[in-house]
Design brief:
Order of helices and strands: EHEEHEHH
Distance between the termini: 31 Å
Radius of gyration: 17 Å
Number of strands: 4
Strand order of the largest sheet: 1-2
Structural class: alpha/beta
Helix content: 25-40%
Shape: globular
Largest sheet: 2 strands, parallel
Length: 129
Amino acid sequence: MAPGRVVGLDAAADAVAAAEAAGRDAGVTNLELAVGDVYALEHADDSFDVVHAHQVLQHVAEPIVALREMRRVCRPGGVVAARDSVYRAMTWYPAFSELDRWLAVYCAVAEANGGEPDAGSRLRHWALA
């Protein structure tokens, strides 16, 4: 419940700076943002009630390791949550060949970088692991 403490993390400094600016513009006062590593969170064990990764696991080479680190900083009885897309299941109407090409390129680049563009379909498996 508000006023709670919200901590945000991203590997990209530009994303953190943009989020800080948006938070200031919106008058948010309980937000702490930092550049960081999902594999090595700079928080003590059992620090948070909720740990949430939105569109994160598709970009990492070791999503199970990331989830374990998220669990480490989540208090007993807390919630570790993740949301990711299944890119190859995406569709659009009307058909648009440029978007088809974008999807193929996105998936190829994601996989070349060690990610999984269809992470959403793997979340349950990763969570159980």
